[in-house]
């Protein structure tokens, strides 16, 4: 009889531990599956945002193939005021990126400054009339002092402006502000430039 009671107790203990193991395994299932369930709303939200942003940046606007800009430019350098001109040629790769070649000259008395720079120009064509632009150009600057001495240095032009479209071919650069960075005799100099210009467009994409 004692042997029968021992078998009964052993069966109950074994059943208890098997039941506990089953409960633990069942409790782990939600923990493993929960992150997968949480990923789906996040991916759907990301897809929704991208579907809203990409069309906004890809609106259908006519883009000039080539833009020619020319106008007046003012330079303040070494506490001296310079007046001059600015000319740019921009070939647009797509609606927001163009490759620019920029040329300018500034004069006061017998002093002068010229620069030739190249680089990317960025445009935000979200409005039919107004187009903000920004650029980062790199090249060389040439300077002539009042005594006739000349020199040159590496030049960086960081700036931007705002264009207003008059018609299919003509636009106005309402303002153009540039930080002209040059390095002369081991000294870095930052000079502001302000320009106003007209733009003529060739062809459209």
List keywords for this structure.
alpha+beta, 8-stranded antiparallel barrel, 1 helix, elongated
CATH-derived topology of the largest domain: Porin
Level-1 CATH class name of the largest domain? Mainly Beta
Sheet bearing the most strands, described?
8 strands, antiparallel, barrel
Shape: elongated
Order of helices and strands: HEEEEEEEE
Strand content: over 45%
Integer tally of domains = 2
The oligomerization state is: single chain
Bin the helical content: 25-40%
Query: How many β-strand stretches?
Result: 8
Question: Order of strands side by side in the largest beta sheet?
Answer: 1-2-3-4-5-6-7-8
Average of per-residue pLDDT values: 80
CATH architecture of the largest domain: Beta Barrel
Structural class: alpha+beta
The count of helical stretches stands at: 1
**Low-pLDDT residue intervals, each spanning 5 or more residues:** 1-6, 20-40, 46-55
Amino-to-carboxy terminus distance: 100 Å
Q: What is the C-alpha radius of gyration, as a whole number of Å?
A: 34 Å
Short description:
With 205 residues, the protein is of the alpha+beta class. The protein is 27% helix and 57% strand.
